[in-house]
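Appendix C reproduces, verbatim, an entry submitted by the partner laboratory led by Prof. M.T., so that reviewers can inspect both the input and the predicted structure.
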Amino acid sequence: MLRRLAAAAGLSLLGLFPALAQEKPAELRIGITTYTSGAASVFGIPARDAAEMFASEINARGGVQGVPVKLFFVDEGAGIETLMTEYRRLVQDQKVDVMFASISSGVCNKIAPLAEDLKVVNFMWDCGTQRILEDDKYNYVFRTQANATPEVMAPLLYLLKVKPDFKTIAVVNQDYAWGRDSWAIFSQALKVLKPDVKVVAEFFPKFGAADFSTEVSRLLALKPDVILSTSWGGDLDTFVRQANQRGLFKSSQFVLPLAESSLQRLGNDLPEGVIVGGRGDHYFLHPERIGDAKFRTFMDAFKQKTGAYPIYPVFHMAQAFSALEAVYAKAVTANGGKWPSHEQVAKAMPGLTFQALGRPIEIRADGQGIEDQLVGTTIRTPKYNFDVLDNMMIFPASKIMPAVGEKSEAWISGLKPDILNIKVDTFKHAD
């Protein structure tokens, strides 16, 4: 009856009854895409486990602004068409309030415009390609972590600081958006900062490849001074094992910007002396957080639950949940204490600051997170049956990424050698 009266008068129920429209919901519904099948599940399942832990902890504290959270998971391993269908179903049928999507950069390229069309707040909680927020403007799409530019620039600067005399380099990257984009950033910056280096091979095996014997054979013959791979998950694990079995690590300096997530799985298959990044300042032995009781409690709880220490997708999931709590607190305050609409939540994201398990993060005006970057070199210690990081450096993200409105390609082309002199915090392994 109220709807008919409102319609006849040309009014909306929201306008007639603002207090009713702002009542807290029974639950805050969160849709999460992550790999729970396929080679990338070694990366996606820990993220799902972490999401369940964070949701339980939030609910134990009374929920987000007094509203309990409920999670809905979608397997990215089912393929892009199924994922897009499930994404739309969660938003339109399940009425989720926020989506956390996705891991794959290729998926995020598809999801971002869909989220905008559906007007659902979407946290790109893990995908790295910088192009999404550099090439287009979105009102509902935000990244709660860094993008490819600082994630690649930090390992490159680390390499130039600790091994500056290399003359040749080769790359082995997965053949999709992340693999191509990350190499474009690295190679362009390398040409600017060290133009005498020769690229002797560029390999882009398909995503999910099980055999890297061809690439390893070519690299053994070429003997490049440096081998870069920004691959991740099962692909990186397989490549490292096959390369180590054939002695490739003995002839080349490896740079693996995403290998923090593989350290525990690889064990002794990953030699000492490899340059490793954590896609942010993500590390279960974070030198600045290791003495923090809350940090250690979560590290131990996750290890007890899953049998492994947290890896960077876990840290990224922590950031998404921290951003969720922070933005609802900000939006509720801005709305005079009333529950915010999805649009009000989206408007509260730019300028948001929050902290999860690493350093604080800020969401810029373009929706991009500013996140510092940790890089180190692998060593063996008696305490762990896998390599840990030593000679760590944490790079300030604001110094190694373009400003709002500037594209990475243009920013990189204007780099100067003095970028190697930016102040970084250095740490030795201490646990």
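Residues 312-334 form the longest helix (23 residues). Additional entries are available on request from the coordinating office.
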